Amino acid sequence: MNVYGDKISRHLFSVQAFGKRHVTTCQVFTKWHHASSYAINCGVVDQKKTNGKMPILNDAWIRQQSLQHGMISPFVEDLHSDNVVSFGLSSYGYDARVSDEFKVFTDVNNVVIDPKKFSEESFVSKKCNECIIPPHSFALGHTVEYFNIPRDVLVICLGKSTYARCGIIINVTPLEPEWEGYVTLEFSNTTPLPAKIYANEGVCQFLFLKADATCETSYRDRQGKYMRQQGVTLPRV
Predict the structure, then answer these.
(1) Burial group, residue 12, by CB count within 10 angstroms (0-12, 13-18, 19+)
(2) Active site residues per annotation
(3) Distance between CA 229 and CA 179 in Å, rounded?
(4) Distance between CA 237 and CA 228 in Å, rounded?
(5) Which stretches of the chain drop beneath a pLDDT of 50?
(6) Is 167 exposed, middle or buried (0-12, 13-18, 19+ CB in 10 A)?
(7) Which residues lie closer than 8 Å to 101 by C-beta, 6 or more apart?
(8) How many Cα atoms sit within 13 Å of 202 on the Cβ side?
């Protein structure tokens, strides 16, 4: 998100909070393509400087950055979709795979989930080709791919529609400028039935947004706590 995007986000929250409306992160991002014009109309940003655009980067740019600068590794140049949940390079994004390592939450030990004092008794670790998530439960996984984000790019992740249509929600927070590592993936089974996740197949799509100016402080600069994370990484404070 560029400096104008930051102003847009703050303005959206301040306006809607004033109107006593609750706005979720999901709602903000699903409306993000309207945000620039909305902010211009409200006088938050100067249209002459932004032209109302925050460019989304295409397949040629993603390929070049991955092959020449290691932005995504291993990198799959074509979209694979034969008898698998699709993965690889798409028109304006990259469909990433989940590895065969999972942590499935369990209530066997009756542990309270505390993000500041997270207990490993909260889950069961599994290494498998097909991970079963119990009804109304939750699991963690990580991407097969290692990401290394450029300093002037913000990456947003959306779950694939194949899983969404099965009631499986995939959540990933934005990949910030100059963050790198394997992405920890969160899977929520919203259904009353067990749900299956296929390892080494596609689960989510990453979209790359180009800022109009380089940020003053990147994730690497401030030594973020999830920098260069390996495998499934648990909450840190």
Answers:
(1) buried
(2) 186
(3) 10
(4) 16
(5) 1-50
(6) middle
(7) 125, 126, 127, 141, 142, 231, 232
(8) 29
Query: Domains plus CATH for the chain?
Result: 1-53 (no CATH), 55-237 (2.70.40.10)
Please give the pLDDT value at position 175.
97
Model pLDDT for residues 33-89, shown as the tens digit of each residue: 444 443 334 333 444 444 656 699 999 999 999 999 999 999 999 999 999 999 999
Structure tokens at 80: 């694979």
Q: Determine phi and psi for 96, rounding to 5 degrees.
A: -90, 160
Closest by alpha carbon to 96, among 190, 182, 34, 36?
182
Q: By the 8 A CB rule, do 153 and 207 touch? A: no
Task: Write out the two tokens for 6.
Answer: 């930051």
The CA distance from 92 to 236, in Å, is 32
Strand 138-148 versus strand 153-159 pairing type: unpaired
Separation between Cα atoms, residue 168 and residue 164, nearest integer Å: 5
